[in-house]
Amino acid sequence: MWRRLLLSGLLVAGTALAADADRPAKKARVVVIPVRDEISSAEFFILRRGLKDAESDKADVVVLDMKTPGGAIDTTFEVMEALGKFSGKTITYVNTEAMSAGAFIAATTEEIWFAPDGVIGAAAPVQAGGQDVEATMKLKVVSYLKARMRATSEGKGYRGDVVSAMIDADKELKIGDKVLKEKGELLSLTATEAMKTYGEPPRALLGTGIAKNLTELLDKKFGEGGYTVHRLEITWSERLAVFLNRLAPLLLGLGMLALFIEFKTPGFGVFGISGITLLAIVFLSNYVAGLSGHEPLLCFGLGVLLVILELLFWHSAGLLGAGGVALMMLSLLWSMADLWPNEPFSVAWSADAFARPLLNLGSGLAIAIVLFAALLRFLPKGWVWDRLVVQSASGGVAQIAGLAEDAASGLAGLVGRHGVAVTDLRPGGQVEIDGRRYEAMVEVGAIDRGAAVRVRGYSDFALTVERSEA
Prior knowledge:
By secondary structure, this protein is an alpha/beta fold. It has three domains: 28-231, 2-enoyl-CoA Hydratase, Chain A, domain 1 (Alpha-Beta Complex), CATH 3.90.226; 236-291 and 337-386, no CATH class; 397-467, CATH 2.40.50.140. The protein has 17 helices and 17 strands. The protein has helices at residues 2-22, 41-56, 73-85, 101-108, 135-152, 159-167, 191-195, 214-222, 236-246, 248-263, 270-288, 294-312, 319-336, 345-348, 351-378, 383-393, 405-408, and strands at 28-36, 61-68, 89-99, 111-114, 119-121, 173-175, 178-181, 188-190, 197-198, 203-204, 209-210, 227-231, 418-421, 428-433, 436-442, 452-458, 463-467. Strands 1, 2, 3, 4, 5, 8, 11 and 12 form an eight-stranded mixed β-sheet that branches. Helix 9 (236-246) crosses helix 11 (270-288). The longest helix is centred in the C-terminal third of the chain and has 28 residues, at 351-378. The termini are far apart.
């Protein structure tokens, strides 16, 4: 019996091994992100979007296809931080140069591969215009960069010393008895120089390998047919979104200003449309630039739905509308936060993630207040303000501003009179008093069609009314 059980077990194990042998090996999922031109906020936004997509798709490897002369050091640190958040393997393919900031970014990745004519190095800090940094400040910056590179390069052979020699002209690079760089110059390496081996056991100075192109690199790394590749394509809409993202505080300010003016005028017109459009531009630019995911879009849509329900169907003393506006503002703030897929809640929803969105929103609010104060100070005395307000308020059949002079002079006599709402007032609409229609608005809440109203006051454009129990 035991013999029979043993034979059965061996047969089952053999069948399982044969099935595993026949099952095709899992292919590595590779995402290639081009890094071109100078390292700037535009390049960072695109690279971040590629890294987030790769994280969401659970890609195994991200390859930076790099050809850059360098760029802004603050943006470089943001790129390095974003690379550190990707949970898979990172590789830089120097195709054909990774100078200055490009060398810092390459040093952050786990492997550095080279095209045959690739070069890397010369990473000393300079000002935005290319001028040397002042001596004292340069000492501080160089010291910080070297420490940052040492921390990034721990456990990666000679990388920390090599990159330090690219940053600091006063550093001598020496391995054993061989001096690779004298003091007084910055280190730059060709592909061949980066692949030279030193020490015991022999280790390459900086590079992992040389490949004629990305296909050869991936073939050497994973074997022919052992991988799938998705290459990030940069679209014109992303370039536009990056540009608009820089203008976020101004667009937010103008949008909030337009909506505030719309709330202060009867009806719905050019200011309301303009305000919604400007806020939508900010929202969509964050979405396209890789900051926002689908969740803020759903939150924004729910907020719009609540506002529509409040205005058209239900009347909840403004509670639904206020909740809808709050959801829209929350989604706008959410869309500007740099949140990463699969990141722990405590890390993702930190103060750092929302520092810049809060600054943008606060700046937008400040811009709106300043512009509104300027409008109150200057425009009401001129024809521009009158034209704008009339255009926004001219949604009704007969505006009060358009009545005959003798009729307009009797508006004061309507205060205290009772009438009926012939349209919904949300907040603007029309009322009928003694058989005559007037444009009217309610200051708080909404009044349904057919409800009794009482006139509380008037302006050049509408009567101010309230619900009446009479």
